[in-house]
Amino acid sequence: MSRDNSDWSKTIFRAHGLPSSVKTFEDVASLLVMGLGLGDCSKDYIRVYSLATAQDFTQNFRQLPRSKTSTVMFVTIPSLIHDDPGKQEWRIPGNAPSRNVDDIILDVHFIGMTPLNDVEAGREHLFDCIAISGLASHPFGSWQPKGGPKTSMWIRDSLPKDLSGARAIIYGYNTKLDDSRSFQSVSDIALAFISQLETYSWTLSSARPVYFLAHSFGGPVLRDAMVQLDQRADEGSTCLLNLMRGAVIFGVPNVGMEQSYFRAIVKNNANAGLVDDVGRDSNYLDRLNESFSGASFRNRLRFFWAYETSNPPTVQVSSAQ
């Protein structure tokens, strides 16, 4: 669905594939305007909120050059976006042949891993904190305050300051409910999460310990991933599981959740089974709870469980769609 200009001015974008030579927020804005063809948007109208080095990326057992990722907002929307508002991702061709990366990608979907900070110079990088959001949520927006300006996001802005030595990362995955053709299960999503951890080098000896924040549907995804790793016998899975230290898990449907709102959205779509998996009296959740409770890592990892004491907002389909 297209957005008007006021919507875009409240939208946070992820710019990834930035060259490692980019050092400051001003560098990011200048690169977007001068080096990448967004000349119709002055750098004074680009707000940069974070700049972080991407995780090590391995492909066919070969470590690829590192790039940087930034979160930005536009006061004035570039024509690249304005002229094609139905998209969620835009590719900006790189112009400098000496760069390690060819193109810059702007997106609003935040799928995959998004690092939000680098550990301050002079401080030791002690651990990573990966946040996993819930069903039909946005990987970045679900951690922002509801209503008002969208310039703040506590995992990006506060967590690295409160936890010295921490690198904050959000994980995005597709949990769209309406008009979805996906028939993935929770276990499929958990397997994809494991694949991302492996791809971005958390199986290497140089990787830092990992803690998690998991909200709502993110809880079963995380727990399923841990169980799958525990049931494997390969060295990489053991290494990855040993890096995990614990999690804060809140608002999670361990015994199932009310389905009527979600059922009204998915109707008879292919992803109806995904909603059933986390519903009340779910056989899947019974099996997951049993496997998780008996897993070998339970006594080693530390978990904090939080629950909600008020009714949360429910997902609804807009009448405009």
Automatic annotation (TrEMBL):
SUPFAM superfamilies in UniProt: alpha/beta-Hydrolases (SSF53474)
GO CC annotations, alphabetized: endoplasmic reticulum; membrane; mitochondrion
InterPro entries: AB_hydrolase_fold, SERAC1
Keyword Membrane: yes
Compartment list: Endoplasmic reticulum; Membrane; Mitochondrion
Keywords: Endoplasmic reticulum, Membrane, Mitochondrion
Entry keyword Nucleotide-binding: no
Protein name: DUF676 domain-containing protein
Lineage of producing organism: Eukaryota, Fungi, Dikarya, Ascomycota, Pezizomycotina
